[in-house]
Design brief:
12 helices, 3 domains, Rossmann fold, 12 strands, 434 Repressor (Amino-terminal Domain), alpha/beta
């Protein structure tokens, strides 16, 4: 009995991903014309016959929402996925989760896969390698509603749900200044990512408003892991004069800072005050417990879902931005 040729068979012959073949065979505008022609030529050569029943299902909207995040292991995104999935289930939607692993190439493949699965809508937080949003235009071309959250492209005209990161960082520095700190350092992430850029702006504006200098040597660029906090704190504590407060761009970074300071014989917060971002549960496991900027994750998940459902159920998909206010959660590190 002759074996039916599948989309994966064609993909293997062409050396491309099967979602690319699927999109090409549906003449998706997200696939270049040259690639579509190659796929169709190979499909005809191999005797491919589409499964009309399956195709009929695919061409209809599902009750599935696609959720694309940079890293599932990160507390913020893990908590967001849990909150969003629960709320989506209450609305009779299933959630399909993808992660880019902070890779732009993987993110682009994830976009193709979400489109191939005919999701009802997509919710996306971009990778650290993502600078422009051209590959997300495929959602619009396929008439799939798209909402960004947390990390978002800089382009205008996009629907997004974000925390007021400027305000969060500003309030964190205010807290440090209220405790008498004047030499405040900041360990931050890549400035092209909106989240980190806005936190940097909030940090700088708070210093300016209190008449404190913007000292470049107190600004450390890195990533957002504990190891970055350890390395950053080590470098900062070699300065003269030393900082008397350190703001971490995330709780993992701030926990790394405390870990280094404790090991190096400094007292937190007596010698150096420390504040983080995100309210990671590990913040209460470190000694002293970490003061943090508490992100409104539950509210963000609810707002993102409602905005996406609004776009799914409406023909008028005007871009909309929602800003949520974080709060300082005071503990013992500042």
């Amino acid at each position: 009995m002759k074996k039916n040729v599948t989309i994966k068979d064609i993909a293997k012959e062409l050396g491309v991903h099967h979602t690319t073949v699927s999109l090409a065979l549906r003449n998706s505008k997200s696939i270049r014309e040259e690639t579509r022609k190659k796929v169709w030529d190979k499909a005809n050569e191999m005797g491919y016959r589409p499964n009309r029943l399956a195709q009929g299902f695919r061409n209809k909207r599902s009750n599935t929402i696609g959720l694309l995040v940079p890293n599932i292991q990160h507390h913020f995104f893990a908590k967001f996925i849990a909150e969003f999935s629960e709320k989506a289930n209450q609305e009779d939607y299933a959630v399909m989760v993808f992660q880019s692993n902070e890779k732009l190439a993987t993110e682009k493949k994830n976009v193709e896969a979400l489109i191939a699965n005919r999701v009802a809508g997509a919710l996306v937080s971009i990778s650290k390698e993502t600078i422009e949003a051209n590959h997300f235009k495929a959602f619009n071309e396929e008439d799939i509603p798209l909402v960004f959250f947390d990390r978002t492209p800089t382009q205008t005209g996009l629907s997004r749900v974000v925390a007021d990161n400027f305000h969060g960082a500003y309030q964190a520095v205010n807290q440090m200044i209220a405790k008498g700190r004047k030499r405040i350092a900041f360990i931050t992430g890549s400035s092209h990512i909106n989240v980190y850029h806005e936190r940097l702006q909030g940090y700088q504006q708070a210093l300016i408003d209190h008449g404190l200098p913007l000292d470049e040597e107190l600004l450390i660029y890195g990533d957002f892991f504990m190891e970055d906090g350890i390395k950053g704190a080590k470098k900062l504590m070699q300065l003269s004069p030393k900082p008397d407060a350190i703001l971490g761009v995330g709780d993992d970074v701030a926990i790394g800072v405390i870990k280094f300071l404790n090991g190096a014989g400094y007292k937190v917060p007596d010698d150096v005050a420390v504040i983080g971002f995100d309210n990671d549960p590990m913040g209460i496991a470190i000694e002293p417990e970490l003061t943090t900027v508490d992100q409104p994750i539950k509210e963000m998940a609810e707002s993102a879902l409602q905005l996406l459902l609004k776009n799914i159920n409406s023909d008028d998909k005007k871009p909309e931005e929602i800003f949520l206010t974080p709060r300082i959660l005071k503990r013992k590190s500042c």
